[in-house]
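User: Can you help me understand a structure? I only have the sequence.
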Amino acid sequence: MRYLFEDYTLSSEQRELHRGTDAVPITPQVFDLLEYLIRNRERVVSKDELISAVWNGRIVSDAALTTRLNAARHAIGDSGQAQRLLKTLPRKGFRFVGSVQEARQPMDAPNVWVDYSANTAPAPASPPHLSIIVLPFANLSGDVEQDYFVDGLTENLTTDLSRIRGAFVIGRHTAYTYKGKAADLKQIGRELNVRYVLEGSVQRGGNRMRVNVQLIDAETGAHLWAERFDKPVTDLLEMQDEIVVILASTLDAQLIEAEARRAERSSHPDAIDLCFQGRHSLNKGLTSEHLALARHFFERALALDRDNVDALVGLATTELTTASSFMVDERGPILAAAEARLNRIFSMAPRHAMAHLLSASLQLFTGRAPQAIGKCEQALALDHNLAEAHAMMGFAKAFIGRGAESEGHIQQALRLSPRDMRAFRWMHWLGVAKLILGADVEAIEWIRRCLEANRNYPIAHFQLAAALALVGSLEEARAAARTGFTLDPAFTTRRMRGFILGNDPTFRAGSKRIRDGMLLAGVPMGDFRDRSIER
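Assistant: Let's start by predicting it. Here is the structure, written out as tokens:
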């Protein structure tokens, strides 16, 4: 039997614990303790019962038992203080309280796992959320020497997709049993109990390489998404890495959208369904309407499961986006609420990459840019596909007088995820960095690119107005400001006072220029003037 909880897998047959694709070191005795508690998760297990089951009735001191329990908690990212998965009930015993899915391996299909829900008789359950198999890509080049490139693309993509939080990805060894065979995708979905199939092909002609991929609903056979890469052949391994990273980033959003569509059709959505709907709302664009809808879904999810990490991350995202996009006059209370939420997330999921990225945003917009850069680096260490971490790192460097480095980081984000729903923000950040450096013409170009991607972004209109005013195009500047006011009639330069978040002279002078440009474009000052920007 295999037990799946959060991003962990515990296999009774192999006596192994994995986090994603990484094996977690665990001693045999601690494995037995954890497995017994998971198998008996529907009830409280007494101390005596646990000792009898794991230690065969031998005398064990309380200190030794506590040590093993702490080791089990540490292996699954829990702690004695948090106890989010493994709880100690004083004078009663212990209980595993995490949400668990079970998978059983049929005797006649050693490479196939069949999933069963935790509370039903042995019968196939619905496929897990975000469950997918990456079929071996087809080599259409007629050149067997290209097989290593094609197989490497398949293997690396399988590994990167497994890093998506909550994803259930069929291992490459099972996937390769289908190599070179005519595939009935619906049948594969039934055999492996997965919702999605990704298939693709690679063809080389002369000095160009073409890669086609498509995402398919394994239940209906419907094509959900397709992409084509047509690139000159240079360094094959570098090309392979680039394609894999772009695909993994894009598929993350595509799978979220597909799950959200399923959730819309459900008459009784659970917390996970609601989180997918919330994340899909965020992916549609960072407008006040989408943010409000996302918050609605995340709050409903928390009403069903108060410890749902993804819902907490979603709410922190809506709060930090609202604050960092200058949508409100008073950002302090919103930032404080986001910080409290992030502290709770880290107590339950200290290695959550997106939470580290959100923490970077919090640090940046509360005047701690060096710490924000460190948080971006932590986020990338946990998930190297997190394109926005590159972009935010570039933006943060503008706050500490290193704005000349901003473009390299933000261009890297755009290479990793060129069609990202959030890419307009990265272009905006680069435009602001250029304004701070006094490169007003380049700033105009980048902010216009941002608005071409998303015109419903008020702060970008006001900052475009500032840049145009600073180069002397006052009529265009005032028109840009008027467009901003149609989206946010209450905006004043008062909100920009919170943008003075660093002591670097270049940053402070650049921030003052932005404020002065807005005033030239006709943006009112508001009822508060922060004289610190003039010092």
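Now, to help you interpret it: The two ends are 67 Å apart (CA to CA). The longest strand covers residues 196-205. Let me know which part you'd like to focus on.
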